[in-house]
Every structure is written in C-alpha cells, then in structure tokens.
C-alpha cells in the first residue's frame, strides 16, 4: 500500500506541474484505499501498536500500563525457561501438524478426484471436518483420549498393550493434540487441494496418456507442478494457522502437563487473561509476530521459486 | 528522494491522525458512558414504576445452574419490586475477564459471582461496592452466618462480598473396594501414613496395567493448599497476606514438602493414579472403579453418591502424622455488588443477597448441590434432615467444616496473583509425577510465584 503511494508521483515526474497535479493519482488511490485503511487502523494497526506499547510496561490489575520497564519484559522472556519450552513446543507442533496434514489431505484429494460413481459422497465425508467447530470436536477427542473410559485405551487393552496416558503424559500430550489438530484441519486442506486438482487442464493428462506416461509420472510431472500454487497457499495458511492454535489446547490440555503443550498463543492467553500480565503477554505476542513474519518472508523467498503459475 | 520522504511523512501523519482519532474516540466514548450512567441513575431515582431488573452473572453449569435458577425464581416470585436475571458466563476463570471489561460502568451486572481466590483481586479492583456498607446501614445481623465461612471473606473485620456457594475438599472412597481389600469401610484413613497403607492395600495390578489405583488427587492447586492448611502451614507470608500485603510465598515449608513427599512416595510405589487436571476425568475414574480413594469438593459429593454404582464413603482430608488436624479452608465463591450502577440496582442486589441467606433458600441450595448452607439454621430445615437421612455422607462435609480450628492458616491466603500461584503448583505437581524431585519442584513453584507477587506489588497503586 505504502509503496504504491510513494511511487505514483514519481511515475508522472514532471518538474513543471504543480504538487497538486503531481499527486492527483496518489490522492485518487488514497481515496480508494481509505475504507480499508480505516478498518485496518481500527482493528489491526491500533491494537498492534498498543501491543508493542504495552510490551514495554508492567500492567496493573486493570490491565493499564503502570510501570515502564523498557526491554525488561523481552529480557525476561529470553531467559525464561517456560518461554523456551513454549517455543520448542510450538515449533514441534508445527512440525507434527503441517507436513502430515497436507500429505494426508493431498492423498485424499487425489483419490477423491477420480471420476467414479458416488465419489461425491466421499468428497463430502472428507471435507466434513470443516463444518465442525474446534470446541465441539475437541470435546469428542477429549472422550476418545479419556484416561479411564476413553476408546483408545480400551482398544489398547483389548490387545493387551499397556495403557497410554494420552493427554497426561508430557511425552504424549503434544502428539495427541497434534493428531486431533491434523484431523480437524484436514477438511479445509482437502477442499482447497481438491479445488486445485479440478482446475488442472484435462488435456495435459490426455496428451500424457497418448505419450504412454505412467500414473506416477503424470503425478510427478503434471499434477504436482500444476498444483504448486495451491500447495503453496495451503502450506502458508496451515503454517500460520498452526502457529496460532488455541482452541484445542484450551479444551484438551490447558497447556499442561508440565507445560508440554503450552504453545505460544496459549501462553499469551494465560498471561493476559488469567494472570493479568498484559505486559509480558504483549512481549510474547510481538515475538510471535516477528517469528511468523520472518518465516513467511523466508517461505516466499525460497518457496515461490518452485511455484509454477500458469 | 526528498519527495518520497515527504510522501512518507504525509502518509504517516495521516495514519497518526487515524490512530489519534481511534484513541480519542474511545476516550470520549467512555466519558459519554459516565455521563449517561449518572443520567440514568437520576432517572432511576425519579421514576420508580415497575420492578427493577438487574442481572446476576454466575459460573454455575450443569446441575448447579438448575439449582441457582431455581433459587432466583423463588426470589422473583417472593416479591414484586425486583427481578433478578441469572446469566451464565462460563467458568470462574472466564467470568472474571468479562467482568473486568465492564467493571465500574453502568453496563456492569449488579451481582457477580467470583471464586474465592479472586477475592483480593476484586477488593483491589475498585469495581465493587463492599456489602459492609449495606450491612452497616441496615444493621443486618451477619452473625447468623457460619463463622468459618465469614472468616475467609472478612478482611480487617470488613465484609466485602456476600458468601454464597461454599465448599471444602473431602476424601471420597469406594466402600466396596475397602471391604474387598480387608479394610474398615466405616473408618477411612486419617493421616498421611494411613493413606499410604490403605493405598497399598487397595491397589490392584494386572500385569503391567494397574486395574485400580489406591489414591488419586486432581492436579489442582486447591487440594495442595488445603493439605498444607490442615497442617497449620501458611501459603504466603504476613499471616497469609491477612495482616499485611503478602510479599513472599511460603508453601515450600516443611508442611508443603510433606504433601509433596506423600504424593511422590505414592506415585513411586505405583499406588497413585494420575488423572490430570479435569474434574470430570477423575470423577469418571472413581465411578468406574479405577481409583479407590480421591479428594473431591464437597459440592461434588451429592452427584458422586447418586452416580456411583457402589457405596461411597466420605471422610475428612488427611493430615501429616507429625501435626494435629487444623481443618479446612473455605473454597467456592461469593457474590459481589457492582459499583457505578444505579442506586436502585444496588438495592435490588442487596435484597437478593439477603434473600439468599435465609434458611429456606440455603436449605434448598445445600440439598440440591452439596454446597454448604451459609446460614447454619438451614440445617434444621426439614428438607435438609430428610436428605441427610438419605445420604448421611453429606453431614460429614459439614462436620469437617465445623470442626475447623480458626487460625490464619485455615482462614486461607489472600493474594491477588492466586491464579498464577495455582498454575505454578500444578506444573510442579505434573513434574513431580514425571519423576521430579519434590524439594526442587516445590522451590521452583515458590520462586515463580514470588516473581508474580513482586510484579503485582510493584504495579499496585
């Protein structure tokens, strides 16, 4: 947005015309942008600057900035063990959920893309998790994971395998939450990828078949490259989504046990709305913002080269 | 280049203007609100036609919600000047931030239910009207109420909120499992060592799986606090924060360590079942016979007796062998009156609070939920007597409370950062169950709590 504004006057650079004329295009552009700038300022920019502002303060019980501490909040974070744990848990969580979720969604979409009788039924089933709210499905998973009456432990019992404390053992909790998250996000990824698959020109496959290309060759040489913009989109969205995961954590584990599932967003929530430490919570939010920003930039720099736009 | 800079300046100044606009808007809005509220209150004073309607925010779900709506309906029907509208606002933890966002304005609900550990926070918040001012005005006799409950909510002899739903922890046990293990089902273990012995006898193993654990405790700070208090241990310094602002946590004392050692010994011996931080999970474990003894809130006793397919016994919470039993600290919640709302609304809230203290209302409440009757006269009501005859276990909870020796330990701690302190205890317990060292984990929790207390005290006005 900003760039467009700076550049327009330079494009029509003419020293003789007045400033008013020079800026005409920019002013028109600004008028068009006004509604979104207005909305952004109220809902994004203002809270963002307020967050940065608060991160330099300790807040009182009403959440008002009370004591300026400079960079102390950030310093505390960098030395805090629980924040290190939180970062580690978040990265692990992203690692568990994003690749697995996309690969499974891709697999399901490839199957559902075949032209078979009744395939519509499977498409609906595979994308159905999109229609379930995080809260409702988390409660269902809570029953499945239940330590004494849960289905998973009953199945294990049936086979004589020792029970697993799915949500209570710090070594398993993150895995369990990841499984439910993958399942939960599957519907959305599936739908997007299926949409991408349907957009691929049928003629490409026809020509390939005439040339005698095998299924795998077609997949590698046609499907994946043609699908790359969609995949790139879904990877970016999933990545950001999983950095911001909150609902499942709140319902399934509340950040425990031993802080093993205390993802950054949950930790921010806990600091801000349970402990009323808006200062440290804001500092964490700023750190998270920078992390996601860097990651997204990195992704665009590295990933976009491989993306094949038609 | 210079032009670019100029543009940038212009753009950013626009942005700043918007930001300023946004800020001042909200500021002027809140001023408007204040004006409105003063207008409103004067209006309310002049025209007093029809009943005054006030909202009551509570955090009771399930059968508690039904019971509370029942009691409110009774109040609404008992008179025609006021109408109280109960509104469920999520758990205690969720309700408090909601109240915080409207506290002090005219939109605040007249009556708010807040859990016991939010007491200090509410007092400090400035959003509430101490009920003491109404008690003094009406010369209302609060001595009819249970002294042990009042003790908790009184600070400097001043009552800030009206006690409402009060509970304490009790030991629940499976009588059939006791008989099966050859233990006396009418005589539950009283001390830490007796708990250990009973747990050993009750634990049943089948290969690598434990079919039944002897003992369990919800991973929740409250139970730890109670086990420390019953030994006479303090949670924070300055007489549990009651003689002066607490500055340091003291729960890594001898008493606290004894609790951690008990849990550690039980856990290492394989007699302790860990069912996490969720109340329903541990209750389900007890109902399905996966654990033979556990601690629950007295408010859960009625439901547990009703649902369990076996005979449920109720006992006092255990204390360390080296000490005497001091009793229990009150838990649960109390009702607060908002400040900044109209006089008429406060009046309605006060009437409702007084109604809640009547023996009839309390008797109904006690029978329906298992929470204590704040007014002991309720225990003489016929419906309570009938209920006690039916399930005598309920009486044990009342006995335990009335046997409590008043002291700063059993009065309970007053700190504004209680929620954070509880999280630290929970983390310490979780680490302990994973093989952590009791002393180290406890010290870590105290250190983190101290930091929170320090920050809170620094920012206090």
UniProtKB/TrEMBL annotation, chain A:
Residue ranges annotated for the ABC transmembrane type-1 domain, each copy included: 87-299
One Pfam short name: BPD_transp_1
Keyword Transmembrane included in the entry's annotation: yes
Intracellular or extracellular location(s): Cell membrane
Similarity annotation: Belongs to the binding-protein-dependent transport system permease family.
Membrane protein topology class: Multi-pass membrane protein
SUPFAM superfamilies, sorted: MetI-like
Protein's name according to its UniProt entry: Multiple sugar transport system permease protein/sn-glycerol 3-phosphate transport system permease protein
Organism, as annotated: Peribacillus huizhouensis
Keywords tagged on the record: Cell membrane, Membrane, Sugar transport, Transmembrane, Transmembrane helix, Transport
UniProt-listed Gene3D superfamilies: MetI-like
Source organism superkingdom: Bacteria
Transmembrane residue ranges: 29-49, 91-112, 124-144, 172-197, 218-240, 281-300
From TrEMBL, chain B:
Keywords noted in UniProt: Periplasm, Signal, Transport
Secretion signal, residue range per the UniProt entry: 1-27
Region called Disordered, residue ranges: 29-50
Keyword hit for Plastid: no
SUPFAM superfamilies (UniProt xref): Periplasmic binding protein-like II
Pfam families for the chain: SBP_bac_8
Main location, first listed in the record: other
Coiled coil: none
Record's keyword annotation contains tRNA processing: no
InterPro entries: Bact_solute-bd_prot1, SBP, SBP_1_CS
Residue stretches of biased makeup (Low complexity): 29-43
Localization per Swiss-Prot or TrEMBL: Cell envelope
PANTHER family: ARABINOSE-BINDING PROTEIN-RELATED (PTHR43649), SN-GLYCEROL-3-PHOSPHATE-BINDING PERIPLASMIC PROTEIN UGPB (PTHR43649:SF31)
Family: Belongs to the bacterial solute-binding protein 1 family.
Protein name: Sn-glycerol 3-phosphate transport system substrate-binding protein
Origin species: Peribacillus huizhouensis
Lineage summary: Bacteria, Bacillati, Bacillota, Bacilli, Bacillales
